């Protein structure tokens, strides 16, 4: 009777205070969201979800063949999801999806939502917002916010059974929780310890359950999770090495699925007596603050008898290892040749050895006997009782209540100890890990808590691909490289492609050319920021016409190939005007001018191989006429490969970069010069081949992973090779020598990075004429600093705040090594509006992937044409910024690393 009177008194106090609450606001510390109390007491829909209905809503977890997952040892990782954003999945969500699939043999990820994901899920295609859903990721629709909240109200089920709350109180509390969850979904982390109870109806078929997050790169969990962890321990948690803080990590902890373990959380009264907590808040006796599950729950576990808990060092974090320089080289995410694993690793700590890290095959673990035959981590030596007096160290666990820190912070535990809780006593035992090739460090998962704050969907576009479709294009997916600035994809060409590159092209047969398709034009996708191919073609297509010299098979790997591209019949695409025809018998002076620019480049390349790729959108009659004129005007020379693509009368925007991608795949040489667009009237200097060979011998022998950038010049005011009014039938060929840079030529104008590259190129080029400075130590040190600074600036350009540095006025002309870190350059699919941004993006990616970017002393190219879209000056008032293009952006990379 007295208890009922106390309850009525509390209710009267609560009712009297409601008018005041309409004017008050309370703050949830940690996420600073203000709520008006009056909202809580709006008209509430009375509802009650019975346990019977909850069981009826249970859905089976179907695996291959449609069978319910029934296995003796299988883990259900529970992740509830709510979003306050219209874009209802975070930008890094594809990382979670792509890496979760590697654990399909032992883990199902159960994602519970209130129905807001339904419009994004395509069951027929098994996708969410266009991203492929692995078979072990289950999206479970609770259909409404009301039903979603009712599940979390189960934490006070015992108080309901004892009638500590009446229906009105229950409804008011439920509405409050619903409002809080929708305003700040992060509150869901408070409930992690109780997930096994909240969703108990959904995990009956699992031996274990656990919790995790979406900002995780999952590694090879089936190899890291041992039989001993599954059989002998009630709870297992993976830490980052901070073992002196004995707590259960919210990023990855799993439990045996049994009632005694699933109810330890009830010792945390902020959950089990949640109604009392919120009453105190409403009455002003307590501020509503986030209660970390890592505090109270960890304390409850460590003070529970007759349970066994293992705290293991098997994780990496960008926060814990913030000062680890090896993260600058990124996290390698390898999927294996069968796309059935996810192995993550990073470079070892200490002096960075980029060559060893990047040189490690992405399939090393498939051939490593130690990796596949024994535990990746194992304890050794005696177990030692932890008897060191623990004390409350300042900041030990700053994010949890001070009361809990007394039981969770210890002295005398190192980051090479496994900690074990057995029957209320703590033990420690040293552990060892397998030594992996090249000293790389591999773990069970990587938590990118800091990196995610700057990630955009564009930066992570490399994770958007449907990898099962790659086989059609002749590529096989091996994984990704994840950086703070974004991600790139790692692909390998199919074996037929590899054989083609190693074998000589012994005839003109298309069967000796690469078999896969190349994307020449693209369009934006509606589902996310990646783009898709609009027009693709293969070397073996009937619309590809070849004219290959008989001695093309004599081309040696040590030669250097010159690549020339041209488009005819197209309008300007921002990278160069295309040549247009009207009638076959019309005056073809314009054609001859461009062909003679082509001839000038061929002549400057002397007897080294030349590969020409032309795209034609002319009618078939005009196309045949064009081919005839090319045969007549092009010089008869050795080691010449000419290919003409007849795309038909189309308005598709074909980019120069796309043509270069296709041309590069047919090169037989290790080195090739790429980026010469004949439509722009680009002419290389007569000594370019000499200087390119000198640069390769001088630099590449010491730094094999190097990219050379040619100088880019334009003619000073004077004779104009594009002035058709003074042209005769055969105008003089434009030739330029190294000495012309001091008289007839001036540098193209561009952004700060282009200016920096040109100044370095000029310094190094003048050193070729007067090499006296080479013996000056100060000069050498200064030059080294400038080259290093260029590397840093290019890498920073991938960050969104510096991404306008990617906007080069002209695409760089590059001397590339097909056998460096990157293998052949990645084919890129570029949306037309981003072409100017892509000019700098290529160099930035090359720098980020470990290539030394060095100006090629003495070698340069001249822009001789002017006209629409050919103004060589750089305009600062750009209509399109490159922010959305930084790192991966609107470009789908078919890889920056080819093995």
Brief sketch in words of this structure:
This protein is α+β, with helices and mostly antiparallel strands and 899 residues long. The chain contains 25 helices and 38 strands. The strands form 8 sheets. Strands 3, 4, 8, 9, 11, 12, 13, 17, 18, 19 and 20 form an 11-stranded mixed β-sheet that branches. Strands 27, 28, 29, 30, 31, 32, 33, 34, 35 and 37 form a 10-stranded mixed β-sheet that branches.
SS element count, helices:
25
Percent in strands? 15-25%
Stretches with pLDDT under 50, minimum 5 residues: 1-71, 495-508, 526-530, 570-577, 581-587, 718-732, 823-827, 867-881, 884-899
Compute the average pLDDT.
Answer: 75
Rounded Rg: 33 Å
Overall structural class, as computed from helix and strand content, comes to alpha+beta
* Straight-line distance between termini: 79 Å
Q: What gross morphology would you assign?
A: elongated
Features:
disordered C terminus; 38 strands; eleven-stranded mixed β-sheet; disordered N terminus; ten-stranded mixed β-sheet; alpha+beta; elongated; 899 residues
Would you mind describing this structure in some detail?
By secondary structure, the chain is an alpha+beta fold. The protein has 25 helices and 38 strands. Strand 6 (127-128) and strand 7 (131-132) form a beta hairpin. The protein is elongated. The N terminus and C terminus are likely disordered.
């Amino acid at each position: 009777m007295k208890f009922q009177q106390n309850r009525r008194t509390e209710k009267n106090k609560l009712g009297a205070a409601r008018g005041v609450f309409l004017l008050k606001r309370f703050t949830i510390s940690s996420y600073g969201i203000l709520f008006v109390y009056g909202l809580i007491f709006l008209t509430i829909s009375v509802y009650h979800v019975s346990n019977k209905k909850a069981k009826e809503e249970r859905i089976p977890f179907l695996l291959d063949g449609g069978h319910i997952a029934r296995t003796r040892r299988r883990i259900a990782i529970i992740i509830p999801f709510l979003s306050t954003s219209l874009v209802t999945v975070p930008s890094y969500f594809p990382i979670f999806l792509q890496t979760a699939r590697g654990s399909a043999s032992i883990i199902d990820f159960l994602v519970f939502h209130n129905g807001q994901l339904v419009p994004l899920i395509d069951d027929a295609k098994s996708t969410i917002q266009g991203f492929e859903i692995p078979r072990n990721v289950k999206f479970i629709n609770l259909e409404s916010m009301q039903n979603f909240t009712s599940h979390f109200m189960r934490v006070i089920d015992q108080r309901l059974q004892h009638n500590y709350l009446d229906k009105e109180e229950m409804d008011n509390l439920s509405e409050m929780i619903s409002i809080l969850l929708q305003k700040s979904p992060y509150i869901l982390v408070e409930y992690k310890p109780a997930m096994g109870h909240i969703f108990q109806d959904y995990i009956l078929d699992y031996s274990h359950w656990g919790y995790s997050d979406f900002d995780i790169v999952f590694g090879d969990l089936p190899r890291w999770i041992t039989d001993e962890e599954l059989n002998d321990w009630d709870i297992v948690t993976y830490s980052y090495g901070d073992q002196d803080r004995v707590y259960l990590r919210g990023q990855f902890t799993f439990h045996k699925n049994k009632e005694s373990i699933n109810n330890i959380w009830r010792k945390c009264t902020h959950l089990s007596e949640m109604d009392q907590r919120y009453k105190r808040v409403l009455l002003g006796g307590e501020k509503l603050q986030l209660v970390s599950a890592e505090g109270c729950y960890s304390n409850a576990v460590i003070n529970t008898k007759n349970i066994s808990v293992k705290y293991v060092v098997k994780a990496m974090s960008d926060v814990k290892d913030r000062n680890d320089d090896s993260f600058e080289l990124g996290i390698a995410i390898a999927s294996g040749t069968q796309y059935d694993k996810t192995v993550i690793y990073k470079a070892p700590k200490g002096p960075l050895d980029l060559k060893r890290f990047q040189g490690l095959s992405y399939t090393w673990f498939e051939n490593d006997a130690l990796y596949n035959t024994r535990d990746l981590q194992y304890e050794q030596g005696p177990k030692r009782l932890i008897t060191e007096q623990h004390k409350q160290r300042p900041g030990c666990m700053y994010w949890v209540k001070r009361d809990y820190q007394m039981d969770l912070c210890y002295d005398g535990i190192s980051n090479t100890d496994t900690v074990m809780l057995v029957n209320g006593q703590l033990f420690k035992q040293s552990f060892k890990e397998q030594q992996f090739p090249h000293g790389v460090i591999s773990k069970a998962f990587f938590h990118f808590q800091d990196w995610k704050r700057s990630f955009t969907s564009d930066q992570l576009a490399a994770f958007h691909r449907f990898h099962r479709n790659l086989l059609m294009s002749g590529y096989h997916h091996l994984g990704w490289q994840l950086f703070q600035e974004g991600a790139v994809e790692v692909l390998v060409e199919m074996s037929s492609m590899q054989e083609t590159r190693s074998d000589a092209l012994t005839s003109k047969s298309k069967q000796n050319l690469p078999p896969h398709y190349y994307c020449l034009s693209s369009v934006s996708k509606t589902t996310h920021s990646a783009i898709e191919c609009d027009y693709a073609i293969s070397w073996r297509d009937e619309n590809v016409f070849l004219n290959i010299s008989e001695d093309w098979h004599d081309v040696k790997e040590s030669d250097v190939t010159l690549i020339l591209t041209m488009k005819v019949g197209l309008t300007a695409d921002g990278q160069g005007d295309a040549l247009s025809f009207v009638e076959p018998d019309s005056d073809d002076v314009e054609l001859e001018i461009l062909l003679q620019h082509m001839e000038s480049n061929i002549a400057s390349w002397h007897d080294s191989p030349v590969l020409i790729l032309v795209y034609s959108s002319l009618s078939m009659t005009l196309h045949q006429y064009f081919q005839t004129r090319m045969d007549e005007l092009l010089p008869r020379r050795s080691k010449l490969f000419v290919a003409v693509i007849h795309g038909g009368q189309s308005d598709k925007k074909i980019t120069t970069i796309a043509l270069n991608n296709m041309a590069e795949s047919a090169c037989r040489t290790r080195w090739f010069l790429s980026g010469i667009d004949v439509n722009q009237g680009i002419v290389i200097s007569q000594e370019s081949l000499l200087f390119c060979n000198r640069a390769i011998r001088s630099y590449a022998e010491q730094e094999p992973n190097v990219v050379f950038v040619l100088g880019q010049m334009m003619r000073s005011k004077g004779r104009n090779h594009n002035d058709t009014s003074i042209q005769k039938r055969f105008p003089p060929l434009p030739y330029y020598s190294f000495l012309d840079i001091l008289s007839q030529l001036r540098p193209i104008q561009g952004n700060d990075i282009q200016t920096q590259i040109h100044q370095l190129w000029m310094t190094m080029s003048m050193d070729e004429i007067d090499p006296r400075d080479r013996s000056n130590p100060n000069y050498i040190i200064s030059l080294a600093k400038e080259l290093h600074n260029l590397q840093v600036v290019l890498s920073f350009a991938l960050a969104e705040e510096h991404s306008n540095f990617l906007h080069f006025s002209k695409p760089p002309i590059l001397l590339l090594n097909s056998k460096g870190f990157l293998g052949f350059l990645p084919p890129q699919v570029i949306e037309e509006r981003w072409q100017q941004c892509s000019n700098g993006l290529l160099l930035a990616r090359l720098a980020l992937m470990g290539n030394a970017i060095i100006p090629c002393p003495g070698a340069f190219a001249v822009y001789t044409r002017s006209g629409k879209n050919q103004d060589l000056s750089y305009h600062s008032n750009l209509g399109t910024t490159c922010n959305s293009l930084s790192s991966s952006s609107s470009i789908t990379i078919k890889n920056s690393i080819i093995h």
